[in-house]
Amino acid sequence: MNRGPTTAYGRLGDISWSSYGSHSLPKTPALLLHSVTDSSEVFAPLLEPLAADRLVVTLDARGHGNTPLSPEPFTVGALASDVVSVLREVVRRPVVVVGHGLGALIAEEVALTEPALVAALVLEDPAWRTEATGADGVPEFLPPYLESFAGADAGTLLERARAEHPTWPEDELLPWVHAKQSVDQRLAERVQEWRGRDWVGELDALHMPVTVLVGEPEHGSLVAPEDLERVRSLLGPQVSTVQVSGVGRSVRREARETFLTVLREVFAAADAAARS
């Protein structure tokens, strides 16, 4: 499978990372963070347009892709610390962080705890509201969802992807399949923490530009209308929202050109700020 212009890959501890494009490119790098049960491979369709003129870095969260599941709790804070290590050791300059779902929470945590590493944030359908079961903090959807593709072969999963996501471009399907095959089924056995912050309210503590990019709840978006309204009415001018009509929880897969247009605008502003 063609994943674009891979220039480096490696491990930092157990964390598997990849970079595309050149470290010498002057434009602000991008870091892409996947959601739960996905992997860095799901960003493959974006690499050619994004890495043409800037460094793009991806990594696999614990228990996903090529990163093994740690015995420690699976918390947003722990996952963010992995990201910070990659930023410091691999990228070594501020980045635009783009996170989807759980990846958006991780991106926000990095920006809150290490703001000097983040030039801008793009939060794609952030998982701000996640119901948990019991004291272990595991989101209620996760155990049955993991079980639903446990042991399934690639052909079966590909048929499922086409049936469940008929609007996705063909090049999105196999990355989704591979991610589901590689996620560690023991993930739901780990203590988890997704709700340690008022994720919407704490956006106002950030000083870098933040773009919240969402679909519509009637099509499956995870962002509740009241949270989007709160973003729009209560938070400062550094936070903007883009709601895309007719799509659900994965804007980049359902409206790729719109997603890329938003990213290009964010990148252009970050590049201009870096030059000033």
What number of structural domains do the residues give? 1
Main beta sheet strand tally, sense and closure: 8 strands, mixed
* Estimated radius of gyration: 17 Å
CATH topology: Rossmann fold
Q: Roughly what fraction of the amino acids lie in strands?
A: 15-25%
CATH class: Alpha Beta
Describe, in plain words, how this protein is organized in 3D.
With 276 residues, this protein is α/β, with parallel strands linked by helices. It has one domain (6-130, 193-275): Alpha/Beta hydrolase fold, catalytic domain (Rossmann fold, 3-Layer(aba) Sandwich), CATH 3.40.50.1820. It is built from nine helices and twelve strands. It has helices spanning 44-50, 76-91, 102-113, 142-148, 154-164, 173-182, 225-234, 251-254, 256-275; strands spanning 6-12, 15-20, 30-33, 56-59, 74-75, 95-100, 118-124, 132-133, 138-139, 192-193, 210-214, 239-243. The chain has an eight-stranded mixed β-sheet, with helices on both faces. α1 (44-50) links the parallel β3 (30-33) and β4. α2 (76-91) packs across α3 (102-113) and α5 packs across α6 (173-182). The chain starts with 5 loop residues before the first strand and ends with a helix.
